[in-house]
Protein backbone atom coordinates (compact mmCIF):
# COMPACT_ATOMS: atom_id res chain seq x y z
CA UNK A 1 0.00 0.00 0.00
CA UNK A 2 1.25 3.48 -0.85
CA UNK A 3 0.06 6.75 0.68
CA UNK A 4 0.64 9.89 -1.34
CA UNK A 5 1.74 13.24 0.05
CA UNK A 6 -1.83 14.48 0.55
CA UNK A 7 -2.75 11.39 2.57
CA UNK A 8 0.34 11.86 4.76
CA UNK A 9 -0.67 15.48 5.39
CA UNK A 10 -4.26 14.37 6.14
CA UNK A 11 -2.90 11.87 8.67
CA UNK A 12 -0.86 14.59 10.38
CA UNK A 13 -3.84 16.97 10.39
CA UNK A 14 -6.10 14.38 12.00
CA UNK A 15 -3.46 13.40 14.57
CA UNK A 16 -2.72 17.02 15.49
CA UNK A 17 -6.40 17.91 15.70
CA UNK A 18 -7.04 14.98 18.03
CA UNK A 19 -4.11 15.95 20.29
CA UNK A 20 -5.08 19.63 20.46
CA UNK A 21 -8.85 19.04 20.43
CA UNK A 22 -9.46 21.25 17.41
CA UNK A 23 -10.94 20.69 13.95
CA UNK A 24 -8.60 19.12 11.34
CA UNK A 25 -9.37 22.04 9.02
CA UNK A 26 -7.59 24.33 11.52
CA UNK A 27 -4.29 22.52 10.95
CA UNK A 28 -1.80 23.42 8.20
CA UNK A 29 1.03 21.02 7.34
CA UNK A 30 4.23 21.52 5.34
CA UNK A 31 6.23 18.32 4.81
CA UNK A 32 10.03 18.59 4.70
CA UNK A 33 13.12 16.50 4.13
CA UNK A 34 16.70 17.35 5.04
CA UNK A 35 19.72 15.14 4.34
CA UNK A 36 20.99 15.62 7.89
CA UNK A 37 17.73 15.68 9.85
CA UNK A 38 15.57 13.35 7.76
CA UNK A 39 11.79 13.65 7.44
CA UNK A 40 9.87 16.27 9.40
CA UNK A 41 6.91 18.60 9.07
CA UNK A 42 5.99 22.10 10.13
CA UNK A 43 2.52 22.07 11.66
CA UNK A 44 0.65 25.35 12.18
CA UNK A 45 -2.43 25.62 14.38
CA UNK A 46 -4.09 28.76 15.68
CA UNK A 47 -1.21 30.89 14.40
CA UNK A 48 1.47 28.86 16.16
CA UNK A 49 3.99 26.63 14.43
CA UNK A 50 5.75 23.55 15.67
CA UNK A 51 8.02 21.03 14.01
CA UNK A 52 7.37 17.32 14.26
CA UNK A 53 9.90 14.58 13.64
CA UNK A 54 9.67 11.38 11.63
CA UNK A 55 8.48 9.29 14.60
CA UNK A 56 5.45 11.56 15.03
CA UNK A 57 4.71 11.39 11.29
CA UNK A 58 4.80 7.59 11.46
CA UNK A 59 2.51 7.62 14.51
CA UNK A 60 0.05 9.82 12.61
CA UNK A 61 0.11 7.45 9.62
CA UNK A 62 -0.40 4.48 11.95
CA UNK A 63 -3.49 6.07 13.48
CA UNK A 64 -4.80 7.25 10.10
CA UNK A 65 -4.59 3.76 8.61
CA UNK A 66 -6.41 2.29 11.60
CA UNK A 67 -9.17 4.91 11.81
CA UNK A 68 -9.74 5.56 8.11
CA UNK A 69 -8.92 2.17 6.55
CA UNK A 70 -9.34 -0.29 9.42
CA UNK A 71 -5.73 -1.48 9.06
CA UNK A 72 -3.60 -2.15 12.10
CA UNK A 73 0.04 -1.62 11.18
CA UNK A 74 3.21 -1.02 13.17
CA UNK A 75 5.74 1.74 12.58
CA UNK A 76 8.27 -0.82 11.41
CA UNK A 77 5.93 -1.52 8.47
CA UNK A 78 5.92 2.13 7.31
CA UNK A 79 8.71 3.66 5.23
CA UNK A 80 8.86 7.25 4.01
CA UNK A 81 10.34 8.05 0.59
CA UNK A 82 10.83 11.02 -1.66
CA UNK A 83 10.00 10.53 -5.32
CA UNK A 84 8.29 13.43 -7.08
CA UNK A 85 6.63 14.02 -3.70
CA UNK A 86 6.83 12.43 -0.27
CA UNK A 87 5.13 9.03 -0.12
CA UNK A 88 4.73 6.36 2.52
CA UNK A 89 4.99 2.68 1.65
CA UNK A 90 3.18 0.36 4.03
CA UNK A 91 3.84 -3.36 4.16
CA UNK A 92 0.48 -4.97 4.91
Distinctive features:
DUF2653 family protein, 92 residues, alpha+beta, 2 helices
How many E-type strands? Answer: 6
Instruction: Please outline the major beta sheet.
Output: 3 strands, antiparallel
Share of helix among residues? Answer: 25-40%
End-to-end Cα distance, whole Å, is 7 Å
**Quick one: overall form?**
globular
Average pLDDT score: 94
Which secondary-structure class do the elements indicate? Answer: alpha+beta
Low-confidence stretches: none
| Radius of gyration over all CA atoms, rounded | 12 Å
In oligomeric terms, what are we looking at? Answer: single chain
Tell me the β content.
35-45%
Q: Number of DSSP helices?
A: 2
Strands in their spatial order, largest beta sheet: 1-6-5
User: SSE string, helix = H, strand = E?
Assistant: EHEEEHEE
Number of domains: 1
Protein name: DUF2653 family protein
Organism: Paenibacillus mesotrionivorans
Describe the structure.
It comes from Paenibacillus mesotrionivorans. This is DUF2653 family protein. By secondary structure, the protein is an alpha+beta fold. The protein has one domain. It is 35% helix and 37% strand. Strands 1-6-5 form a three-stranded antiparallel beta sheet. A three-stranded antiparallel beta sheet has the order 2-3-4. Helix 1 packs across helix 2 (54-69). The mean pLDDT is 94.
Amino acid sequence: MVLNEQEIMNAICLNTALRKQIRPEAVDVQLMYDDDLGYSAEVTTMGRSQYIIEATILEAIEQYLYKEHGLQVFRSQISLYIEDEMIARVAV
